[in-house]
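Subject: Sanity check before I submit

Could someone independently write out the structure tokens for this chain? I want to compare against mine line by line before I put it in a report. The sequence has 261 residues.
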Amino acid sequence: HMLASGIGADAAIVPEPFGADAVVTTHAGVTEMAISTIGYSRHISDRTGAVDAIEQMMKAIPAIKATRFRPNTAAALPALPLLNVGGIIGGRGRDHDLKGPNFTSDFCTVLVDVRFPPGQTAATVEEDIRVSLDALAAGDPTFRYEIEHPLPARYGALTVTMEPTDIPLDEPLVTSILGHYRDVVGRDPRHIGVSLPMSYAGNDTAHLWRAGISCVLFGPSGGWDESPEEPDQYISISEMVTVAKVMALTALDVCSQPVSA
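---
Independent answer below. Compare away.
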């Protein structure tokens, strides 16, 4: 929203917790969609002509997961594309009314997340999924579906697409961070450019880079306290110190550039 409103910056460091030993410039694209099957509701006492949207979705989910996407030509991100069906609700009507389980469901929706490589787009991802579902429909005249893509806000999930991003390693902001990392730590980061599996996640460099803002991902990490009494996630103080020092020196570089640069 800020970028669309015209708010910008000379440079940006996205401090996602990928770890102080990772300067990340490459990540997958991310898109989410709602796929719904459409049935015909009838009362349990007489289900003549009923089409159960939940049963139809039980057919659709394996087809969605088996989608054959276009080839991945990004050798640095070999696991892509990745697809997950992460939510499901079925009921009556487009609001998924659950007050009538004595009626056949006529609308069932799954939320799908797809991570895709450079060379593919959110549009091609949807096209490939439609091929799978259209094959189901060709063999079953009662099978009907629709796709909402990108997701409407009412689902409370990701409503924008993060395009695959590959920032050049010779971008001045990147070379500044790498140089000051060496100054602070005495060596190169263990991960430069790609950091797996974290590069399969999206991040805000996707939006910043396309807005013409030089950017990179660099942030401290920690771990999980998996105590059953009080599970929690933490960031290592030592990593925070390292990242803060590198960021401060990099900020000096950026702020020392001539105004016309």
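---
OP: Matches mine. For the report I'm noting this point. The helical segments are 53-65, 122-139, 172-185, 205-210, 237-255.
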